[in-house]
Structures are given as structure tokens and as C-alpha cells.
């Protein structure tokens, strides 16, 4: 009887088993999800040690797990709540200059739930170069961005203190002689900003060094900031004017007739660019004073000039050649 129960209807029972397994696999797959995302790689180092070079700052991970958990992980990854963290243990032999290590990344370095499987990650090996930390005083360079308003320029800059103490990798500080401030925005400034200085400016906490054909930015620490003064001035320029008429200045009752060899001359002036851009021939007065001259001639007289405010003569003017004679009555 028992044997008949067990062996009877084998085909039906086999089909039922296959359907049950298929239904189980369908249910499992339906409620299982996959996700491939990029996460940040954090490498922690012992006190007194810094990372000079890091082969990768992000890794790509492929995760699989219950769909509801995977959905939550996707949001957490976008919010950077899921990251890879590797801690480099203190070396038995102290790092004197710099040391290269290769670290292996695995599941234990990811803060993911136990129900989630790590199906793969790339890269799983990352090269890092470690260096001993050192202190050094570096010259401060003022870093600017933007341009002053048209017609203005930065004539001088002053920073105090001119040097600050920086903590960074020994190998990097050996090559460094200066460090930049954070960029100062000078876009559109004029002389009106001169009264607002000094500005308190922070330090850009990185030093750029050359490694082969690459420029590498190495982070450093600095607890100081600086005060910066900029001297904004009107931009100076020159301008050339041709054929300016020379006027003859004489008393109203002057009894002589003046004949100029050249009634026109050229002049080159200098001054604020904004002023020169608006300047034309009518704004310049050139003249000779003949009040004290009497026949016979000829004479050589200096050409005198009257220029607008803040505008100066750039090149010396030539002498005027003239003849003088009695007025014909």
C-alpha cells in the first residue's frame, strides 16, 4: 500500500515538483535586484603620515540582494552614505620619506547590509604612495580670478604675513617654495575698492608638484589665514594725435605779422585709458607766445600746451619756426 502511494502517479508528481521549483525560482528572482554604482574610496592613514598619490578615488561595485534593500541602497549611494573605507595600519618600520603600497579592496571595506551580496568590484587593487608629514614655512602667493573693470588694473599687491607654516608630505615640501591663497575675485573692481582693504583671505590647502609629465595636487594643512591689500589704479595708456593747429598768442594791439613755417604739429600724450579714449584734437591746445618778439626774424619758439586733467605730454614737442615782420597798413 505504502509502496503504491510512493510510486503511483510518478509522472504527475515529477511535473508538480518541476512546477514548484520553477515557481520558487520565479518568486526568488522577482524579489531579487541588482545594482551597479560608483562609490567613494576613503583611505585612512596613521598619524604623521599623508597620502601623496592615490591610484583611484572611486570604485565601481555590483551588488545583488532583496529588491526592497537594493532600492534603498541606490538612494544611499547617491547620498554618499555607502562608501568604501580602507585603513592602513601603522608600519613597523617608520616612513622616512615616501613608501608605495598596494591595497586590496573587498566586501569588508564596504558598509553594505549582510543580506546584500557583492558580485564584483573594480578596481579591487589600488596603489597608494605614503609620505611622512613635515612642517615648512612657505611664501604666500596671492591667487586672483577675473579682471578689473575696463580702464583699471592692479598696480601692487601686499600680503601679511608673507610666509606661513604648512604641514604636508615631506617629499612634496622639499620641492615647494610657495603656496597660494584661495582665489580672490577681482572681477569688475575699480579704485572704489581700495578703501575696503585689507581683505582676510584663506589659504588654498594644496600644493601642485610635477611627477613625470603630470601635475599632481597634494593636500596640505595650514591653520593660518592672511590679510591682502591690492592697489587698484586707472590703467595708463598713450595716444598719438596728428595735425594739431598751433595757435599764436599775442596782445590785441600787437603791431607785427607772424608767419609760421608749420602751422600744425603732432603730439603724443599719456594718461588714464578711460580719459584718453574720449580725448580728441579739440581737447588739446598748442600755442606759442610772441608777445616779446620784434622784427627782424626768424625765431625759434617753444610750443606750449594745455592738456586735460591727469593727461601729460609723452614726447617732447618740437620748436616752432616763425618769421616776424611789420604789419602792412
From TrEMBL:
Pfam families: YbbR. InterPro entries: c-di-AMP_regulator (IPR053154), YbbR (IPR012505). PANTHER family: CDAA REGULATORY PROTEIN CDAR. This is YbbR-like protein. It comes from Candidatus Jettenia caeni. The lineage of its organism: Bacteria, Pseudomonadati, Planctomycetota, Candidatus Brocadiia, Candidatus Brocadiales.
Amino acid at each position: 500500500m505504502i509502496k503504491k502511494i510512493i510510486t503511483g502517479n510518478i509522472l504527475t508528481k515529477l511535473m508538480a515538483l518541476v512546477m514548484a521549483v520553477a515557481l520558487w525560482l520565479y518568486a526568488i528572482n522577482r524579489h531579487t535586484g541588482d545594482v551597479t554604482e560608483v562609490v567613494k574610496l576613503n583611505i585612512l592613514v596613521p598619524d604623521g603620515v599623508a597620502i601623496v598619490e592615490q591610484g583611484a578615488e572611486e570604485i565601481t561595485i555590483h551588488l545583488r540582494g532583496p529588491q526592497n534593500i537594493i532600492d534603498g541602497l541606490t538612494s544611499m549611494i547617491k547620498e554618499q552614505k555607502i562608501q568604501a573605507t580602507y585603513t592602513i595600519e601603522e608600519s613597523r618600520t617608520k616612513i622616512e620619506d615616501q613608501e608605495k603600497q598596494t591595497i586590496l579592496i573587498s566586501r569588508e571595506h564596504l558598509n553594505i547590509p549582510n543580506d546584500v551580496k557583492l558580485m564584483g568590484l573594480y578596481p579591487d587593487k589600488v596603489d597608494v604612495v605614503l609620505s611622512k608629514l613635515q612642517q615648512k614655512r612657505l611664501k604666500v602667493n596671492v591667487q586672483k580670478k577675473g579682471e578689473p573693470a575696463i580702464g583699471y588694473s592692479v598696480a601692487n599687491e601686499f600680503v601679511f604675513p608673507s610666509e606661513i607654516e604648512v604641514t604636508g608630505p615631506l617629499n612634496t615640501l622639499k620641492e615647494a617654495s610657495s603656496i597660494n591663497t584661495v582665489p580672490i575675485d577681482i572681477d569688475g573692481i575699480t579704485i572704489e575698492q581700495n578703501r575696503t582693504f585689507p581683505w582676510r583671505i584663506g589659504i588654498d590647502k594644496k600644493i601642485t608638484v610635477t611627477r613625470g609629465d603630470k601635475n599632481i595636487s597634494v593636500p596640505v594643512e595650514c591653520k593660518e589665514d592672511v590679510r591682502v591689500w591690492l592697489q587698484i589704479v586707472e590703467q595708463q595708456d598713450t595716444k598719438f594725435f596728428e595735425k594739431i593747429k598751433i595757435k599764436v598768442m599775442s596782445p590785441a594791439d600787437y603791431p607785427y605779422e607772424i608767419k609760421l613755417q608749420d602751422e600744425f604739429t603732432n603730439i603724443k600724450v599719456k594718461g588714464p585709458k578711460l580719459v584718453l579714449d574720449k580725448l580728441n584734437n579739440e581737447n588739446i591746445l598748442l600755442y606759442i607766445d610772441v608777445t616779446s618778439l620784434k622784427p627782424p626774424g626768424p625765431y625759434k619758439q617753444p610750443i606750449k600746451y594745455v592738456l586735460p586733467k591727469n593727461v601729460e605730454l609723452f614726447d617732447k614737442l618740437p620748436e616752432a619756426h616763425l618769421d616776424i615782420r611789420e604789419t602792412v597798413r
